[in-house]
Amino acid sequence: MQNEQHGPPRPSMTSRERVLKAIRHEEPDRLPIDLGGMASTGITAIAYARLKEHLGISKTGIRIFDMPQQLAEVEPEILSRFGVDVISLGNSLGEAPPEFWKPWKLPNGMPCQVPTSVDLRPEEENGGWLIWENGIPTQRMSASSLYFSESFHPLAEMTTPEELKLIPRPVISDEDLKFLEMRAISLYENTDFAIMANYGGNILEAANTLRGFTRFMMDLGRGGAFVEDLIGGIVETQLSNLSLYLEAVGKYVQIIQFGDDLGMQDRPIMSRSMYKKYLMPGHQKLFQHVHHNSNCAVFLHSCGSISPLIPDLIEAGIDILNPVQTSAKNMDPKQLKDEFGNQITFWGGGCDTQRVLPFATPDEVAQHVRERVQIFAPGGGFVFNPIHNIQPDVPPENIVAMFDTAREFGYAS
What we know:
Blueprint: H1 15-23, H2 45-54, E1 64-66, E2 71-72, H3 76-81, E3 86-88, E4 101-105, E5 111-115, E6 119-123, E7 128-133, E8 136-141, E9 149-150, H4 161-164, H5 174-190, E10 194-200, H6 204-211, H7 213-222, H8 225-249, E11 255-259, H9 272-293, E12 297-301, H10 310-316, E13 320-322, H11 333-340, E14 345-347, H12 362-376, E15 382-383, H13 396-409
Parallel strand pairs: 3-10, 10-11, 11-12, 12-13, 13-14, 14-15
Antiparallel strand pairs: 1-2, 4-5, 6-7, 7-8, 8-9
Helix pairs in contact: 2-13, 5-8, 6-7, 8-9, 9-10, 12-13
């Protein structure tokens, strides 16, 4: 499948070339665009169904690849319509066999499909849903919710380093590695997309999942052997799996995606000194492992107000920062571009999804996008995406205005 552009044809480089040139801090023929390259640059299934209806595309075939966030797998017709240049390694492009999917219904009652592998059970007493893993309900969606949230933290009650030694460390299976390799080869040889390998590789979020957010923040505050061993075990497991992952797909993909949300709306989630003591060494090991063992760019997703940590993230080895939450404190787009634009690629920040995309008119969205492109695009180092996923309440007209403006306004002069 070729990634054809919507609208009048223009001589251009391939999508893969376009993204790589932007990452090298060179201006490509036009601004690269991402929709669905990873689980924070996508679109929720409800918004996706409304967008397809608005575009006159059949609403059937809505497939959810990320259950907690209820994200839709973006189909080839939509990728082509918006001139998208990036593909997730996990996107089936409609090629997954029918038995891979099973029917379900979105919170608004619309039919959809979810992976057969997801053990999805109704929660009878409140009309919600549970996701079970290894005989335990680990995620819950209430009847009034649009998303799943964590409901189980397996290490919540542990208190000593000795207990941590008993925890099994998951290893990517040979079967999964072979599937990933075959998928990477297929996308590399049969499309011209830049390929995003969604490794994840988080440290903070893994610890939050294992312990619960409040407990782990208290662990960090107390310090000591328990939290150091917990983080050390996570990093060791991540490095081991990363080696296997890169061996399988590193020759075919261009971007390795990590994720750790380090920010809140008005400040980092921890002090800079705490980040440098507990998390930065692990990040550095992971990011540098990618650089030493592949030609892939390191992509880090981290929400919130994280400007004080950006110099440390650059030192640790990131090449790309997402989602560039300019709606957070101290995340002014011009200041970010001026201070860090020559050192990292900004992947996101193209449209404010908190205050603009859901509530503005299409013309206001278009003007907002033009202003962001004017700030971030000069000199390369920018891939267009809104700030995080497109939520269910976003009018489809605004989605069209956003991506069409980015594509049309983003041509090099």
